[in-house]
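User: I'm writing a short report section on ligand binding and want a predicted complex to refer to. Could you take this sequence and adenosine monophosphate and write out the structure as tokens? A short remark afterwards would be nice.
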Amino acid sequence: MNYEQFDEFSLSPRILRAVKEEGYTQPTPVQARAIPELLAGRDLLATAQTGTGKTAAFALPLLHLLAERPAPDNHSIRALILTPTRELALQIDGCLHAYGKYLKIGSAVILGGVAQGPQVRALQKRPEILVATPGRLLDLMSQGYVRLDKIEMLVLDEADRMLDMGFINDVRKILERVPAERQTMFFSATLSTEISRLASDMLRDPVTVAITPPASVSRKIDQHVFFVGQDNKRDLLTGIIKRKNIRRALVFTRTKHRADRVMKQLVQEGVAADAIHGDKSQNARQRALSAFSHGKIRVLVATDVVARGIDVEGISHVINFELPNEPESYVHRIGRTARAGADGIALSFCCADEVGMLRGIEKLTRCEMTAEEDHEFHCTATAALYRSPRALPVAIPRKSPRRGDRPFTTHNGRANRRPQR
Ligand code: AMP
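Assistant: Sure. The structure tokens for the complex follow:
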């Protein structure tokens, strides 16, 4: 059956009313495919691009099933949603509140980086849904504040990240405490063979929903590359931000240190900017995100900590000040623009050390970026290296590149190395 309206799903009228108030008229493709399967109680493995409505795809059936099924008692957590980042956990909880505003289903958020007291108090109110990042959840479980033995539904959002080296052990430990008899849903923008294999151990006869080929990029994103020496990137960025009509830009760096430096330079140049990365306190991260989403700052400089799942409306540009080590991260980064049907622009700065990464990204996404050569920092040598058939297709260094590039000569004959500021 083709689901074209929300009221074609057998969702509670109270949920349908809330969805309508959110302004959703039609289900997105991932919602149209996932919601009926989840309502029928099936396990699910869904691959869909970021910004395609994945949260509602699991949150609506989850809320419906909790509201319709009698609770075994009134003091157990019945659904657990695990996410890799704190911001995503808060965002999902916000969606649960919006979609469940006419239901009486409590939720709590458990995340690291902030005091545990308020979270413990939230748990004492007996929420039925828990949204959590794995580290703090395990911590509170070991202190006896959380029991997961009555879980009926488990969601792994950004499942590829949750099952990679950084999180897999924590996820396994959590799963040991969740009943085997449960409904499990995995949502992810990308899915490697290795991850699918791990997922198959955790899901029971899942329905697979693949809306777009894994790691595909929305056609609504215009992608451009600038060949530029590392030392010229900051001036190129300031020039672009000042000249172009950029409403709201998210700038990505690979390191926290560089995120801070780029942000400081923008502020010195009179651009309202802030930085967000793993060394900032959770409160500072929330403040920066909120200032960005309310338009108080125009540029947010970030490491990949915010690349996944964050939904800030109206990001017109994503700028890769540095290309990511892993090509999949590029897909997540640029997925922050062109959300919910809007257009977006992705600009990538590529120095000589990053040519291999650029090729890796283009190979993964199967799209070629438009080369922007008409700027004063254009580096012909890097452009030539990129076009040279001898350049390795996917030479991706695992470490950050050296701070300075070899000096190249630009098209106007000047050496492009500039003193570090
Ligand atoms: P997500 O992929 O869950 O992060 O959702 C991306 C954005 O799409 C969010 O701003 C949602 O509010 C919005 N959204 C989700 N479902 C729909 C829908 N059916 N119609 C319109 N917007 C939606």
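A remark for your report: The chain is about 35% helix and 15% strand. Confidence is low (pLDDT under 50) at residues 391-421.
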